[in-house]
C-alpha cells in the first residue's frame, strides 16, 4: 500500500510518499513560496539527484499539480501512474473538540476545518486548500485528515477548561486544545514499544522541543494535560512565541502602543519568545553560540526557556501516580545536549538523574540517557509525524 502524506503551510507544502508494506519513504519533497515570487519545488529520491522545478505557483492547487507531475515523471518519478497511490493523508492544524480522531474527509469534516479557521487562521485555510486540490486533481482517492489537536482530546475538563464565564466557553468553544498531537501520539506508541508496555499502562512526559514547543502529560497512554492552549501561543517560551503571559499584557500593549488586538497577537506570536528577549535570533543554536561569547540577553532567553520546561515537568509529575520516562523529541530535544542538561539538572530529588556522559554529544538516537539505576528513565526519541499520519491513513482506508 502506498500512502501520500501532505502537510500544507500558509505558503509551503511538504510531502512524502510512503510504502506502508515496510514503512519506507519512497520519495519526499517541499514546495516553497506558494503564491509568492520565486515558487520552487524540490523533489528528493534516495540515491538520485534532487529534481527542482522553479515556476510560478499561485495557490496550493498549482503546487499539488506540480507534486503529482513529479511523482509520475518518466525521468524523475517513482510511480507509473497516480492509480498506484492508495490514499492521501493530510496534516490539519485545528479540529477543535469536534474531530477527535483521524477521519476520512467528508463535506462535514471540511466544514469543521473551516469552522476552526478562527483559531488557526494561517494553517487551516492552507490545509483545506490542500485537501480540495487533491480531491479535484486525483478524483476518487480517499483523503484522510490527521488533526494536530485530536490526540489531546482525552484531557479531562479540569485541565482543558479556562476559568472564564461558562457562557463564553459554550458560545465560542474557548478551551485548551493542544497541538503537536501527531508527534505526541507517535512518541506515545513508540515508547510503549521501547519500554515493552501496553499503551494503556504507559505514563510519560513528552517534551516536543523546537522552534515551537509543547509538553504532553501522557497518563495511561492518553493525554491528561498539555501545555499549548486554544492556539499554539500558550505554554512554553518558544522561538518567537511568548508562551504563558498575563493576559493584561495584551490590553496594556493595545492602549500604550496604540495597536489593534490583532497586532498585539502578532507581536506575541512572531516577535516574542527567545527572539524578543535576545534581540538576536529565534534559532537556539545561534543563541547558544552567542551566550558562549558572553551575550547576556541570549543567556537570559535560554534560561527562560529551560526554566519554563522545568516548571511544566514538575507540574505534570504532580498529576502522575508514577512516571516511566521523560522523553525528549523535536529539533532541540533530539539534538541539543546543552538544552537537555540545563532542563533536567536540578530535578534529581524527583528521581530524574541525567547521565552527562550518555547525554553529551548524543543526537537523534533512541537511547536512555538517565543514570544507571535511576528511578525515572530519560529517553531521546526522534519523532516521525509523517509516519504517524501514514499509519492512521492506512488504518482508516483499510476499513
What this model shows, in words?
The chain has an 8-stranded mixed sheet, sandwiched between helices. Helix 1 (60-72) crosses helix 3 (123-137) and helix 7 crosses helix 8. It has helices at 60-72, 107-115, 123-137, 157-160, 166-172, 181-194, 248-256, 261-270, 273-278, 284-292, 296-317, 330-335, 337-344, 356-359, 385-398, and strands at 2-8, 13-19, 24-32, 40-44, 51-54, 87-92, 103-104, 143-147, 203-208, 214-219, 222-226, 325-329, 367-368, 377-380. By secondary structure, the protein is α/β, with parallel strands linked by helices. Helices cover 38% and strands 18% of the residues. The longest helix is centred in the last third of the chain and has 22 residues, at 296-317. The protein is globular and about 60 Å long. It is built from 15 helices and 14 strands.
Oligomer: single chain
Number of E strands: 14
Average per-residue pLDDT, rounded, comes to 96
The total of helices stands at 15
Largest sheet: 8 strands, mixed
Strand % is 15-25%
Keywords, separated by commas or semicolons:
about 20% strand, 15 helices, eight-stranded mixed sheet, globular, alpha/beta, transferase, ATP-binding, six-stranded mixed sheet, ATPase_NBD, Aliphatic_acid_kin_short-chain, about 400 residues
Write the layout of secondary structure elements.
Elements lengths: L1 E7 L4 E7 L4 E9 L7 E5 L6 E4 L5 H13 L14 E6 L10 E2 L2 H9 L7 H15 L5 E5 L9 H4 L5 H7 L8 H14 L8 E6 L5 E6 L2 E5 L21 H9 L4 H10 L2 H6 L5 H9 L3 H22 L7 E5 H6 L1 H8 L11 H4 L7 E2 L8 E4 L4 H14 L1
Parallel strand pairs: 1-6, 6-8, 9-12, 12-14
Antiparallel strand pairs: 1-2, 2-3, 3-4, 4-5, 7-8, 9-10, 10-11, 13-14
